[in-house]
Design a protein that fits this description.
mainly alpha, 78% helix
Length: 370
């Protein structure tokens, strides 16, 4: 049964999603509603350019909302914008909810707070410089759920999610890469699983393109690269990336070094994505990087947790020095308790699963040596 705390959290995240979606709809979607409607119709009629023609899940969902809005009596000229606003609310809420759930399992209330604060702040910074990208609103939720299942090795669930995610956007291939990197050097069983996930993604990816047929690409790569290196674009890029995470950049860089080995391996997916983004993307667009919240937020949580523990220890030491009798017994007990809490913090079934696999690998290697 879902408890009252969960309902309150869901309601709070919904309120934040409504506020963010209102800003997004009024400032980004509304001025370009006609262009968005045109591209939406082109996708549904198999007339859109690549890669938009093959990103079907979000347009299908948006079209469903549009039919509901129209049935409720909203005028046709306003119905599409209302549907876009509802889809933005749903997408942002789902992304915040899944991130909060995943980080909350591992980092407790601190993880929920981090997911909410960083997510809301950076989404409002990233959702700019475009007019129709509904798939980007739900992809953070897909990646966050996938990464949680990767850590727990929920292989069958991952197969289904890869199929669904590929209908949303072709970048679901990076879910497969995340699985491969996280379970790197874990034995032949995981190599087989990576192969199955790769074939699943490739099958769905190819099937969609075979059914719809070839489409001209929407961008001229050489023109995009030339514009990216212009002075104006470089200034725009610098400002956009600085504002993407704002003050949370400090937490990210400080926290990366404290990650466990598997989490560091998973972060290599950022390098792979960036190497493609440099040649194909508009450098100032931070929106595509929202999908990687699932691996960017954990080091922030660890850094913030260390700060909270240090602050709590300092406060407790100061309080005990004033109120204790001075024999050091209470202070020592408190310090021991604090250290025990710090050593056991963030222990989850996913950690246990990773530790068990690492132990099995070490044991096998030792047996081969002897």
């Amino acid at each position: 049964m879902i408890g009252g705390k969960t309902w309150r959290l869901a309601g709070g995240l919904l309120a934040l999603a409504i506020g963010s979606a209102y800003i997004y709809t009024s400032t980004i979607l509304s001025p370009a509603v006609k262009q968005s409607m045109l591209l939406h119709r082109q996708i549904l009629s198999d007339a859109a350019p690549s890669p938009y023609a093959y990103r079907l899940l979000a347009p299908w969902g948006l079209e469903g909302l549009l039919k509901v809005v129209t049935a409720l009596g909203v005028p046709a000229d306003k119905g599409f914008l209302v549907a876009e606003g509802l889809w933005a609310t749903l997408g942002i809420w789902c992304s915040l909810a899944v991130l909060s759930w995943a980080l909350g399992r591992r980092y407790g209330n601190l993880g929920i707070a981090c997911a909410t604060a960083v997510g809301v702040f950076s989404m409002n910074m990233a959702l700019r410089d475009h007019y129709y990208q509904p798939w980007s609103l739900i992809e953070p939720a897909i990646f966050a759920l996938a990464y949680e299942w990767i850590q727990r090795d929920r292989f069958k669930s991952l197969i289904a999610l890869v199929v669904i995610g590929t209908f949303n956007r072709e970048t679901t291939c990076f879910v497969v890469l995340l699985y491969a990197l996280y379970w790197w050097y874990s034995g032949s069983k995981y190599i087989f699983k990576v192969g199955v996930l790769s074939v699943t993604w490739l099958f769905v990816f190819s099937a969609i393109r075979l059914i719809i047929g070839p489409r001209p690409f929407v961008h001229d790569f050489s023109a995009v690269v030339n514009y990216n290196v212009s002075v104006g674009a470089l200034v725009h890029t610098s400002v956009a990336w600085m504002m993407f995470l704002g003050p949370f950049w400090y937490c990210l860089f400080r926290g990366v070094g404290t990650l466990d080995r598997r989490s560091k391996q998973a972060m290599l997916s950022l390098v792979a994505f960036g190497s493609i983004f440099v040649f194909e993307g508009c450098w100032w667009e931070t929106r595509p990087w929202m999908s990687f919240y699932c691996i960017v937020l954990p080091p922030m949580c660890i850094m913030l947790n260390q700060f909270v523990l240090q602050s709590a220890t300092t406060y407790e030491s100061g309080t005990l020095s004033v109120f204790c009798s001075g024999d050091g017994t209470s202070s020592g007990a408190q310090t021991t308790q604090s250290r025990a809490h710090q050593s056991s913090v963030f222990h989850t079934p996913a950690d246990a699963r990773s530790a068990a696999v690492d132990h099995q690998i070490s044991t096998t290697a030792a047996e081969r040596t002897t």
